[in-house]
Amino acid sequence: DVMPFARYVQPGRVALVADGPLKGKLVSIVDVIDQTRALVDGPVTGVSRQQIRLNQLHLTKFRMKYPYTAPTRIVRKSWTEDKIVEKWTESQWAKKLANKEKRAQMTDFDRFKLSSARVKRNRARTAVFKSLKLKAARSGAFGKKRTTKKAEKKVRTKKAPAAKPAK
């Protein structure tokens, strides 16, 4: 059996705050207040226990085991035991957010350096592609086998200038 959806709003679920003054911080859901609000706590990330709207949260795949309405010390203990911060920093989601932040902090010169590095990389990639394509064409991968034409040098001799008639 494959569950169609695995991230539920439940006590112990770690979430990323997507909006408001706590944007970008990790919190843990301690209790569900009603259909639109939850009680959250982030003892390690510097978020005090408070209520937050569910549409301000993005649920992560991480979940801790503790009873609902557990005190902050229990949440902190569970957070450190489960190594939530380490797991989060290793996740693709966190890496993507870090890269997004890094790009936002780039200066004009940094953008220029990135652009020139990209051009350099693409030129090298194109050169390798063209050489492989040529090799494949010669081996007959695209139809009939092509033979290499030997460069025949034509010996050119300078023609003597025609004598001008004397006047």
From TrEMBL:
GO molecular function: RNA binding; structural constituent of ribosome
Entry keyword annotation includes Ribosomal protein: yes
Keywords of this entry: Ribonucleoprotein, Ribosomal protein
Keyword Ribonucleoprotein: yes
A Pfam family of this chain: Ribosomal_L14e
GO cellular component, one term: cytosolic large ribosomal subunit
Large ribosomal subunit protein eL14 domain: residues covered: 49-122
Basic residues bias (residue ranges): 143-167
BP GO terms, sorted: ribosomal large subunit biogenesis; translation
Region spans: Disordered: 139-167
Record-stated family: Belongs to the eukaryotic ribosomal protein eL14 family.
PANTHER family, A to Z: 60S RIBOSOMAL PROTEIN L14, LARGE RIBOSOMAL SUBUNIT PROTEIN EL14
Protein name, as recorded: Large ribosomal subunit protein eL14
